[in-house]
Amino acid sequence: MTSIVKAVQTCYAIPSTWDVWTEAGEYLHLKYRSGLAKVFVGSEDGPLEMESAIRIGNRFDGLITIEAFCEAIGLTLALQEPYVPLPDPNEGHDDHDGEDPSWAVKTERPVRAEVLQEAEALVCGDRDEQYGSPRDNLQRIANYWNDYLFDVVHPENQLTPRDVALMMVLLKVAREAAGHKRDSCVDGAGYFSLAAEVA
Q1: Is 156 helix (H, G, I), strand (E, B) or coil?
Q2: Which of 31, 61, 77 is the last residue of a domain?
Q3: Do 187 and 124 belong together in one domain?
Q4: How far apart, in Å, do the first and last CA atoms of the chain sit?
Q5: Residue that wins the pLDDT comparison between 40 and 110
Q6: Cis before 15? omega within 30
Q7: Is residue 125 one of the residues assigned to a domain?
Q8: Which of 60, 128, 150, 190 could form a disulfide with 123 if both were Cys (CB 3.0 to 4.6 A apart)?
Q9: Is residue 142 part of a domain?
């Protein structure tokens, strides 16, 4: 079982994250978001690759202690250096008795806001860590598609990362036209945002 000898918390919640070092001197990045505990390997200033993931909570959960994380994922916490968790950013701000104040109006979040928030989490969160920068990943896809199109239809013009993002939007539109699925809308919004960024 891998022993963690040093830990630095880098984010308090949503996600809860830590940079940790093992007894063997290996660097790991621990991340808990949407009920998933993930372990990434790599270098401190280089790309990370996900080594393992386990679901230990629900998809709305993003807060956990390092003790609970390590126990769930199978890491031994044997810290040899002082560890100070980040302070709770909400501590001291609960100035009422748990009841909503009289002026508070409860409203449901519009679906459009939830879809955009989910899309943001996808393109700025796990997928960004797994696949690298959007431009590099879309360029890689463009290269593969260009090779295929050259063999099949011999196009004169090469696809760009923006073309890939827009064509992926069209794929999601085609899926949504066949029947509503929230994931298609979320992914489509995400690909549109990537098209804007690489443009």
Answers
A1: coil
A2: 77
A3: yes
A4: 46
A5: 40
A6: yes
A7: yes
A8: 190
A9: yes
Decide if 94 is inside a domain: no
- Report residue 69 as tokens: 């994380």
Select from 53, 77, 101 the last residue of a domain.
77
Q: For residue 167, give its domain range.
A: 111-198
| Overall number of domains in the chain | 2
Are 38 and 25 within 8 A, CB to CB?
no
Identify whether the C-beta of residue 3 lies closer than 8 Å to the C-beta of residue 70. Answer: no
- Residues 88-131 have pLDDT tens digits of 887 766 555 566 666 666 677 788 888 888 888 777 766 666 77
Strand order across the beta sheet in which 36-42 lies: 48-55, 36-42, 27-33, 16-22, 3-11, 76-77
Orientation of helix 111-124 relative to helix 182-198, angle to 10°: 60
Do 53 and 119 belong together in one domain?
Answer: no
d(CA 196, CA 134): 11
- Provide CB contacts within 8 A for 42, sequence distance 6+: 27, 29, 48, 49
Q: Give DSSP secondary structure letters for 47-67.
A: -EEEEEEEE-S-TT-----HH
Report yes or no on 92 lying in a domain: no
